[in-house]
Amino acid sequence: MSLSVSEIRKDFPILGQQVYGKPLVYFDNAATTQKPLCVIRTIEEGYALHNANVHRGVHFLSQQATDAHEQARQTVQKFINASSPDEIIFTRGTTESINLVAFSFGEAFCHEGDEIVVSVMEHHSNIVPWQMLCERKHMHLRVIPMTAEGVLCMEDYKALLSERVRLVAVTQVSNVLGTVNPVKEMIAEAHLHNIPVLVDGAQAIAHLSVDVQDMDADFYAFSAHKVYGPTGLGVLYGKRKFLDAMPPYQGGGEMIDQVHFEKTTYNVLPFKFEAGTPDFIGTTALKSALDYIQSVGMDNIAAYEHELIGYATEHVSSLDGMSIIGTAPGKGAVLSFVFWNIHPYDIGTLLDHLGIAIRTGHHCAQPLLERMGLDVCARASFAFYNTEEEIDAFVAALKRIRKMF
Amino acid sequence: MDVNEIQDEIIDDFSGVDDWLDKYQLLIDMGNGLEPLDEQLKKPENLIEGCQSRVWVCASFDSSTRKIHFEAESDTVIVKGLVYLLLKVLNDRTPEEVLATDLYFIEKIGLKEHLSPTRSNGLNSIIKQIWNYAIAFKTAS
């Protein structure tokens, strides 16, 4: 492997700590990723040295903060290969990005009787905003089914693409199954019918190279905190032709051109969609995170994580009573499972006391779990700072827990 | 025994157990010993639904003795163990006794983490539900 995990781990101070006297094994990366020192320092220095509101001041600090904020936008643009920084909108997270599209795209393009297509494996954040739109506009939500392995049924998908469909919203990587959906093919198929596609990139952005122009996504949403960046910040990429045609999402400062009681006109892209003071310290910290990933190399990260999930799958599935949820070919570094009939809450609580942090519950994907015939499950999700030794500790812990029941 | 004597007895049972794993083992064994709830009683109105686990609590009131009898179950064994302990303390008491009880044993035996409102297993919700029953029975009688 071409990346030194022991060196990388030194960049993440949180990984060195103990919980309940045990070395921390952090396997909850699909929920949020840990932050490298460069990100933490950018935040610290931002407040210590560079803090001033952006876009408004003529003074030195404000100019400096504005430059840093706009540079961060360009870094994001290059990271996902968007054609222009004007197409990069900063939001509070993936959820807000999707809500923005559901509202503004909905206002511009959707009418009674229209349809939105989502998949059964979506996170609630890529279901509920569309349900709200459907309720508001008296539209219908259509759902792409999947196989028992967790692969979307492409024939059913194609059949759903009727002339009533205004938008397809689909995740690139499932947060429960790890399935990597063929979004490029799905987009091409939708575009044959002139249907735009929003890709939920929350679980993809930290794990594979994203090129929005190559996949030809019309919208792409992700959160900074899932890609080693700060929390409370997200990105919405949107093609200019759609963003220009969409009304603003929220009103306030920054998003205006002229305000008069008779009539207010709106700012140009991307500011039209960025009402209020943006998290300009957060955006510079996101830039640090993306620079850090670039320095490690996304291909190296993807290759290493592929090895990790292979190792984990092999060792975990060798345990008696283990059933892995989501076995799509080429899946990402997510391992959801049910172990004997031990409730995931009990597994999570006991693993926690062995220093191992995993996620249990419905993972904000209740329709998906229902499809799998489950209420809840346990999930270990990996990042490039995890190791095979940690997976060994995890497997040993599961064996130990089994004996307690 | 009054409620606090029972609480002290539980604290005593746990005091010899230093290792957290043994502590949870004890809790799991207690959970497995909790009388299963009649399937018919596992109905929506008895359900306290958390994000992580499901707990059913039902109660009946004997108006002659003025005592409340609780029955409860959870789909997780650890929560069942906690419920077992709660019922050991609070079961077959008058509404006044239930409402006057300070449940100090949970913290003393080192399981306070399960009380955190952000912890989605609903131990807090279970206690609240028990209180609600006690208030309702107190008012009705």
Describe the main β-sheet of chain B briefly.
3 strands, antiparallel
Helical/strand content category of chain B: alpha+beta
> How many structurally independent domains of chain B?
1
Low-confidence stretches of chain A: none
> How many beta-strand runs of chain A?
17
SS summary, helix count of chain B: 6
Pick out its properties.
heterodimer, A: 405 residues, alpha/beta, Aspartate Aminotransferase, domain 1, Aspartate Aminotransferase, domain 2, 2 domains, seven-stranded mixed beta sheet, four-stranded antiparallel beta sheet, 40% helix, globular, B: 141 residues, alpha+beta, Sufe protein. Chain: A, three-stranded antiparallel beta sheet, 6 helices
Show the helix and strand layout.
The complex is a heterodimer of chains A (405) and B (141).
Chain A: H1 5-10, E1 18-19, E2 22-23, E3 25-26, H2 37-49, H3 60-79, E4 88-91, H4 94-109, E5 115-119, H5 128-137, E6 140-144, H6 154-160, E7 165-171, H7 183-192, E8 197-200, H8 212-215, E9 219-223, E10 234-238, H9 240-245, E11 256-259, E12 264-266, H10 280-296, H11 298-317, E13 322-325, E14 334-339, H12 344-353, E15 356-357, E16 359-361, H13 366-371, E17 377-381, H14 388-403
Helix pairs in contact in A: 2-10, 3-10, 4-5, 11-14
Chain B: H1 3-15, H2 20-33, E1 47-49, E2 54-62, E3 67-74, H3 77-90, H4 95-100, H5 105-108, H6 123-140
Antiparallel strand pairs in B: 1-2, 2-3
